[in-house]
Structures are given as structure tokens and as C-alpha cells.
Design goal:
Number of domains: 3
CATH topology of the largest domain: Rossmann fold
Oligomer: single chain
Number of helices: 9
CATH class of the largest domain: Alpha Beta
Order of helices and strands: HEEEEEEEEHEHEHEHEEHHHH
Radius of gyration: 22 Å
Strand content: 15-25%
CATH architecture of the largest domain: 3-Layer(aba) Sandwich
Structural class: alpha/beta
Distance between the termini: 45 Å
Helix content: 25-40%
Shape: globular
Number of strands: 13
Largest sheet: 6 strands, mixed
Length: 354
């Protein structure tokens, strides 16, 4: 059977997945990687463009009946008209769909990513509550999260930089934090290093945090338009309009990798969590192990290690409240999903009776 292109990230593990794929028995079937999605159409690469082959091997097919995201490995139909099969994902950054009518539906932002970089601008104090939500989604994705503080060139005082970094570490104690400048190039080599070996990194963040400038600097070309920042808050205007798989250039040190650039994510809505909340709030969950009662609500119970940490000033009460809100939001979403599935089953039963 033909293998996927290794320069796209295909490896021995994907070969094992391919061997059990329902499409592997078809002689003409070959896996390709989704590089872009536009209104029901997928751009699929079988061999990426290169200086020696600027065109590569690429086709554009329909996503009819397929749940497809940028980064997916797919098989297309014999007539090259549609996605026939999506290989099981290693990882997926999934949030709750934010548009009306699909509030209990999942929206996959990117798939088969190795590292998720959560981008915040260092020019302003990081939004800790948003970052906590992003970390929950990132941990649940199956990829390794890290925080990137962009726009280092806008903050001259090293002491202020340390304060902003510590603000991130207060809510992200178990992840790496990088301070970078897309304008000057500060700190970018550490990000490139994590992509070497044809690994895939994804950059996610709100509009205006400098994500596109970082992408352009990493790639070494203007692949995403950038706009002037607004006066007063130093926030850029959102310019990225579609999710793309972008090649990172090879260098003498190691092989190239891949970068998934995404539009600015305004709403960070949870989807069903695995262990994301436990990992994003590992400091609080460690304290819970020392509460006197196993079902402690961390309110007025005696012997509550969490409340003791708050009273001692070792735990920010806003962080505890944030965790409780996310747990409640996740429970409400699970109830909503169950209700939707139940309603669909009832409708299906009525259809079967007809």
C-alpha cells in the first residue's frame, strides 16, 4: 500500500493506523493531509510544495458527510471528488460550536497536532481566566500545551516582563512559557525547535495578540496579513480568516515542521472534558487530596485544605471560583448533550415507525 508523505508528518505509527483503515484495501487509495478548509471544501496535500516542486501534489475535494479539520489525514474517493474516510486522530483541539443552532455541537479547530501554543500579548496583563479555559481545551486535545507571550518589543522594562510571566505561571504552573517578538525575532528559535522532525505545532489566541506576526516570522514569509495596532491598547486588528497548514522552512540543524495558524478565537467555550480541568488546575486538585472529606465542596466544611490555602494567601480565590465555574459549565454541557441525543433518538424512532 502507498504510504503518506513523511515530510507531511507521516510515520510508523500512522502506518499502523493505515493498515487497519477500511480504505487500505483499495489499491488506488493513499492518505493525504488536509491543509485548508473553505466552506465545505478541503485542500488535501499528498506531497507538499517545495522549491524543487512548487506545485506539489494537491487536490481540492468536497467534505460531504465527513467531519474534517485542518491537520487530518484523509482518503479521497476514487473520482477525487470527496473525502471518503478520515483516519483516527491522534489529537484534536475541540471547542463548543459558538454559532446559533449548534450550541451542543463540537467544533474541531485543528487535528493531529503535537504542541499547542496559546498566544497572549505581553503588552497587557494576561487574561488569566481566558488562559485557564484555553489550557483545559489544550490538555483535553491530546497535544502538549505551552504559552507564548508575544510583542516583547513593546515592553522595555525587564521587571514588567517578569511580572507578566509570573502572572501566567500562577495559572499555568505545569507548562512552558515563551516570551517572543515577531518583529525582532526574540525567542522564536525555541518554537521552531519544537516543530523539528516534521512535527506539527498550532498557534491559538484571541484576535489582535500578534499571532499572525509570529507566524510570518516563523515561516520567514508573509503568509498572513497583519494590521496596524489600535492606539491605547496596542491590540492588532484581526486579519487571519481561515485555518491553514503552513510549512516551516528547513534549516541546517534539523528537518522542517508544520504550523497550523487559526483565526482569532473570540469565544473559548468548553466541550466535553476528559481530564483537562484536573490538569489545568492541578494545584487545586493536589490540595483537594488533603481535604478531610472526600466530597468536600470547598466552602464551609471543616478540614478543607483548599479553603485553608485561600485563607493563607497561597491560592487566589478567583482561581478557585474559576475552576468551580468551569466544572459547572462542563456539567451543564454534558446534560445538554444527553438531552440532544435523547431528542434525536426519539425523532429517529418515529421515523423508523413510518
Amino acid at each position: 500500500m502507498p504510504a503518506g508523505d513523511q515530510s507531511l508528518g507521516w510515520d510508523v505509527t500512522w502506518e499502523e493506523v493505515w493498515s487497519t483503515s477500511p480504505s487500505s484495501g483499495r489499491a488506488s487509495a493513499r492518505p493525504g493531509r488536509v491543509a485548508r478548509i473553505d466552506r465545505g471544501w478541503s485542500t488535501v496535500w499528498f506531497r507538499p510544495p517545495s522549491p524543487a516542486d512548487p506545485v506539489g501534489d494537491v487536490i481540492r475535494v468536497r467534505n460531504i458527510g465527513a467531519d474534517v479539520a485542518v491537520g487530518d489525514w484523509v482518503v479521497v474517493s476514487v473520482d477525487d471528488e470527496r473525502v471518503e474516510h478520515v483516519l483516527p486522530r491522534r489529537s484534536a483541539f475541540v471547542r463548543r460550536a459558538s454559532f446559533e443552532g449548534q450550541r451542543a455541537e463540537a467544533h474541531t479547530i485543528a487535528a493531529n497536532i503535537d504542541d499547542v501554543f496559546l498566544v497572549h500579548s505581553i503588552a497587557a496583563p494576561p487574561n488569566q481566566r481566558r488562559l485557564e479555559r484555553e489550557l483545559v481545551l489544550a490538555f483535553d486535545s491530546g497535544a502538549q500545551p505551552a504559552v507564548v507571550l508575544s510583542k516583547r518589543d513593546l515592553l522595555d522594562n525587564d521587571h514588567d516582563v517578569e511580572i507578566r510571566v509570573q502572572s501566567v505561571r500562577d495559572v499555568a504552573p505545569d507548562v512552558d512559557v515563551y516570551v517572543v517578538s515577531g518583529i525582532r525575532g526574540d525567542g522564536l528559535e525555541a518554537l521552531r525547535e519544537r516543530a523539528r522532525g516534521y512535527r506539527t505545532i498550532a498557534l491559538l489566541g484571541a484576535s489582535g495578540v500578534g499571532k499572525s506576526t509570529v507566524v510570518n516570522a516563523l515561516v520567514g514569509d508573509v503568509v498572513q496579513r497583519t494590521a496596524e495596532v489600535r492606539e491605547g491598547d496596542q491590540r492588532g486588528r484581526h486579519t487571519t480568516t481561515a485555518t491553514n497548514l503552513v510549512a516551516l522552512p528547513a534549516d541546517p540543524i534539523g528537518s522542517a515542521g508544520w504550523l497550523v495558524d487559526t483565526p482569532g478565537v473570540r469565544a473559548v467555550s468548553l466541550w466535553s472534558s476528559g481530564h483537562g480541568i484536573e490538569r489545568a488546575f492541578s494545584d487545586i486538585f493536589d490540595l483537594m487530596d488533603h481535604c478531610r472529606f472526600r466530597d468536600c465542596k470547598h466552602e464551609e466544611e471543616p478540614g478543607c485544605a483548599v479553603r485553608q490555602a485561600v485563607e493563607a494567601g497561597d491560592l487566589d480565590p478567583r482561581r478557585l471560583e474559576s475552576m468551580k465555574n468551569l466544572v459547572a459549565e462542563e456539567a451543564a454541557l454534558e446534560d445538554e448533550q444527553k438531552a440532544r441525543l435523547k431528542a434525536e433518538d426519539r425523532r429517529g424512532f418515529r421515523r423508523r415507525k413510518k
